[in-house]
Amino acid sequence: QVQLAESGGGLVQAGGSLRLSCQTSGRTASNYHMGWFRQAPGKEREFVAAINWSGGTTDYVDSVKGRFTISRDNAKNTVYLQMNSLKPEDTAVYYCAASTYTYFTGIRRRDRSIYNYWGQGTQVTVSS
Questions:
Q1: φ and ψ at 87, to 5 degrees?
Q2: What are phi and psi of 41, to 5 degrees?
Q3: Which burial class, exposed, middle or buried, applies to 61 when counting CB atoms under 10 A from its CB (0-12, 13-18, 19+)?
């Protein structure tokens, strides 16, 4: 069992930056692949970024490529999402999630159903 706690959300102007953190507890973070998802009002929760257990493989949805960077520090049991050049359409609640799925590859790592554990979310609001 692992618990996830997101932090770092807030209100920022368009073009600004935020860094989200996801602290894991209960089990060693390196046991899990990790993902970030977001959900805007009235929309489904969507994939944003993913990173495998070692940090050697990352994946991003096209809309954030070149602006967002996912990383992890297993010694600190923390996963990060650095968000630069933020746009109003990035406004959403951001969730981190942990997965023990063996085949964490390709399109599978974008699928919410392979993530076993979820945090409570942190609000990101980008003003125009």
A1: -120, 155
A2: -55, 130
A3: middle
